[in-house]
Design goal:
The complex is a heterodimer of chains A (about 120) and B (about 110). Chain A is about 0% helix and about 50% strand. Chain A is built from no helices and 11 strands. In chain A, strand 7 and strand 8 form a beta hairpin. Chain A is globular, with a radius of gyration of 13 Å. Chain A starts with a strand and ends with a strand. The relative contact order of chain A is 0.33. The model of chain A has no long low-confidence stretch (mean pLDDT about 90). In chain B, the strands form 2 sheets. In chain B, strands 2, 4, 5, 9, 10 and 11 form a 6-stranded mixed beta sheet that branches. A 5-stranded antiparallel beta sheet of chain B has the order 1-3-8-7-6, with no helix packed on it. The model of chain B has no long low-confidence stretch (mean pLDDT about 90). Chain B has about 110 residues and is mainly beta. The termini of chain B are far apart. Chain B contains no helices and 11 strands. The chains are: A mainly beta (about 120), B mainly beta (about 110).
């Protein structure tokens, strides 16, 4: 089945620094990837839709200058949290779909802690 | 705003019993429905997808879809302690760029 590899799984960074999270589709081409954030005991909230070769589409309330998304190839999308603050601490998860009729496969998630 | 609603639980079921989870959605033109299982600290895993009215069975899991009533349910037969997790209902809208809207999740506890 489809596999989405996400790295790192955990990261601790200092307030004010930037963190990059990578997601790769290992055995399929993902023209679209989705980035979610999940707070403890809450559901997944879609942050943005990442489209290969074009600008990401951000959900309402998500700052595009703070959460930079790059989807440079059909198998790689990155999310960079810039000038991170403690309130950005969360579980970030990417997702991709192999094709029409297929389910959405999730990466393993990245636990970001900003201290 | 389009919504997907689930009871947060916890839904406590004895081992071997049937766990029944429900999900309602507000967007009448939704076309694809998914159930995911999420263990604490892990990312969601796809259990079932369903696109047409009726039942769809896969092992111990059965998804039921009723588009007229705008609900989708998941039955877990012969529940095992390893089924203890949060179950997320997700809906794909027809004209929403393939993105999913998730419900808040139902926490299931299977007691030995």
């Amino acid at each position: 089945g489809a596999v989405v590899s996400q790295h790192p799984s955990r990261v601790i960074c200092k307030s004010g620094t930037s963190v990059k999270i990578e997601c790769r589709s290992l055995d399929f081409q993902a023209t679209t990837m989705f980035w979610y954030r999940q707070f403890p005991k809450k559901s997944l909230m879609l942050m943005a839709t990442s489209n290969e070769g074009s600008k990401a589409t951000y959900e309402q309330g998500v700052e595009k200058d703070k959460f930079l998304i790059n989807h440079a190839s059909l198998t790689l999308s990155t999310l960079t949290v810039t000038s991170a603050h403690p309130e950005d601490s969360s579980f970030y998860i990417c997702s991709a779909r192999e094709g029409e009729g297929a389910g959405y496969t999730f990466g393993s998630g990245t636990r970001l802690t900003v201290v | 705003q389009k919504e997907v609603e689930q009871n947060s639980g916890p839904l406590s079921v004895p081992e071997g019993a049937i766990a029944s989870l429900n999900c309602t959605y507000s967007d009448r033109v939704s076309q694809s429905f998914f159930w995911y299982r999420q263990y604490s600290g892990k990312s969601p895993e796809l259990i079932m997808s369903i696109y047409s009215n009726g039942d769809k069975e896969d092992g111990r899991f059965t998804a039921q879809l009723n588009k007229a009533s705008q609900y989708v349910s998941l039955l877990i037969r012969d529940s095992q302690p390893s089924d203890s997790a949060t179950y997320l209902c997700a809906v794909k809208e027809r004209a929403a760029g393939n993105k999913l809207t998730f419900g808040g999740g139902t926490r299931v506890l299977v007691k030995p």
